[in-house]
Every structure is written in structure tokens, then in C-alpha cells.
């Protein structure tokens, strides 16, 4: 019986090692499918311009700008008003005219969580170990009737992203995000498709966001992607009107 126990432990350890190797192998295949690490790292900035079609039948203009290492600015324009969310590498701020807030204000921790995911220039899979993330391969799954490879990415802060990779291309076709906020779980689903190369790196030109029950609640159709263009650093910077304002006054808005 003692030998049986040792054999079972050895098999279990081998299974864990093989699973870890498989997860890392899939991450490397995903990176290679996007263009390879050298081409990915050669991109220092990106501007994505698109149209958002909402569930209510409205259409808005969207722009997302990213700059290494972790700067991001997102705009949403509709009916003459523009909402802005931005992160300067240490602080998140926003202008939300649709909610009656026309002046800049600091972002609260809860709202900032989603923006920090967008601020990760290369995404959680690239250099995942250095970022403190862990990746597990959970086997095969089904997305819209098609086979998919499922990866579980546990971020350094404890949030979880499930990635679903196309088994033929190894590109992401879906991700499910779980954010753990003050004892509750906030879930969202993102579906990606229509990939095209830009400077040798593959980008999705169709991105839908919603819930598990309605994953296509909002769809952004990308019109243009520009890489390595000059982006004014002031676009990400906290507005002067906020620099003297105490964050505590606005953190929970």
C-alpha cells in the first residue's frame, strides 16, 4: 500500500508538471500567433478608433489610446458629449458628462479595475510570470458551438480571466472576467474576432462586451488601428484642476 501511495503521489506531481508545461506552451503559441514577441514589443503605442453599437440602438464613436508601459485613455462620444477615462501610470481619472459630471474627477478603486486591465499594454499573458500572474490549462470547452482551448489566468490582485483560444489559430476568441470587489464578484464577457495584422501584429477588429447571458450587448467595430504614432503624454495626465484636489473627496463617486 505504501508503494501505491508513492506511485499515486508521483503520478499527481507529473500531472501538475505536464499541465503547467501545456499552459505555458499554449501561451507561447498565442504570442506567436499574434506575431511573435519581438514584433509585439516593437509596438510602443497604439490608437484604436471604432464605432460602438449599443443594445438600445445607439451608435457612438470610441477611441482607445495606449502607450508603454501602462498608459491608457478611452473616449466615448455621443450626441455632442464625450466621456473620458484615463490612467497615467499611477492615477485614474474621468469625465462622465452622461452621468452629469462634466468636470474631471478621480476614479474610485472599483471603476479603476476595468481600466487597469486595458492599461496592460501587452495583456496578462505576455510576461505573465514577471507580472505575478499564474496560468492554468483547463482543457477543451465550447464557444458558440465551436471547440476552444480554455486557460485560467489568475492575476496578481486575485482577479481571474478565463481565456478561450481558437484551437486552429491560438488567438483569443472569448474571455470571461471575474473581479472580486468587497466580497462580491463582478463578471463580464468579451468576445473577439475579425483579426487583421497591423505592423505584423494581429488585432481583433470586432469586440463585443456584455454578460454571460448577453455577451454581445455592445459591439465595437474597429475602423482604424494606428501603431507607433506620437501620442501627447498630456492626454493621459491628470488635469490641472485635479492636481490640488484631495482624492478622498471623489474616490467613491
Give a written overview of the molecule.
By secondary structure, this protein is α+β, with helices and mostly antiparallel strands. The chain has one domain (2-249): outer membrane lipoprotein receptor (LolB), chain A, CATH 2.50.20.10. Helix content is 21%, strand content 45%. The protein contains 4 helices and 13 strands. It has a 13-stranded antiparallel beta sheet, covered by helices on one side. The longest helix has 33 residues, at 2-34. It is globular, with a radius of gyration of 20 Å. The protein starts with a helix and ends in a 10-residue tail after the last helix. The relative contact order is 0.16.
The whole-number mean of residue pLDDT values reads: 89
Task: Please give the radius of gyration in angstroms.
Answer: 20 Å
Low-confidence stretches: 2-19, 248-253
Q: Count the DSSP helices.
A: 4
Total individual domains = 1
What's the end-to-end separation, in Å?
62 Å
The oligomerization state is single chain
* CATH classification, class level: Mainly Beta
Q: Any idea what the shape is?
A: globular
- CATH-defined superfamily: Lipoprotein localisation LolA/LolB/LppX
Beta-strand portion reads over 45%
Largest sheet: 13 strands, antiparallel
Label the CATH architecture. Answer: Clam
Amino acid at each position: 500500500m505504501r508503494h501505491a501511495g508513492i506511485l499515486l503521489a508521483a503520478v499527481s506531481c507529473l500531472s501538475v508538471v505536464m499541465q503547467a508545461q501545456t499552459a505555458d506552451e499554449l501561451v507561447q503559441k498565442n504570442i506567436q500567433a499574434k506575431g511573435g514577441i519581438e514584433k509585439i514589443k516593437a509596438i510602443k503605442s497604439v490608437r484604436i478608433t471604432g464605432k460602438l453599437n449599443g443594445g438600445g440602438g445607439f451608435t457612438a464613436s470610441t477611441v482607445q489610446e495606449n502607450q508603454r508601459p501602462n498608459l491608457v485613455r478611452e473616449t466615448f462620444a455621443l450626441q455632442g458629449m464625450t466621456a473620458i477615462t484615463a490612467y497615467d501610470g499611477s492615477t485614474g481619472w474621468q469625465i462622465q458628462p452622461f452621468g452629469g459630471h462634466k468636470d474631471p474627477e478621480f476614479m474610485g478603486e472599483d471603476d479603476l479595475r476595468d481600466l487597469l486591465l486595458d492599461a496592460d499594454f501587452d495583456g496578462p499573458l505576455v510576461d505573465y510570470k514577471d507580472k505575478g500572474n499564474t496560468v492554468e490549462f483547463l482543457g477543451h470547452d465550447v464557444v458558440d458551438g465551436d471547440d476552444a482551448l480554455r486557460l485560467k489566468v489568475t492575476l496578481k490582485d486575485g482577479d481571474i480571466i478565463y481565456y478561450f483560444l481558437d484551437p486552429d489559430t491560438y488567438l483569443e476568441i472569448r474571455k470571461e472576467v471575474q473581479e472580486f470587489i468587497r466580497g462580491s464578484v463582478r463578471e463580464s464577457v468579451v468576445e473577439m474576432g475579425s483579426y487583421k495584422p497591423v505592423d505584423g501584429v494581429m488585432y481583433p477588429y470586432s469586440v463585443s462586451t456584455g454578460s454571460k447571458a448577453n455577451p454581445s450587448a455592445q459591439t465595437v467595430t474597429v475602423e482604424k488601428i494606428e501603431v507607433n504614432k506620437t501620442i501627447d503624454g498630456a492626454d493621459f495626465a491628470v488635469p490641472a484642476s485635479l492636481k490640488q484636489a484631495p482624492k478622498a473627496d471623489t474616490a467613491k463617486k
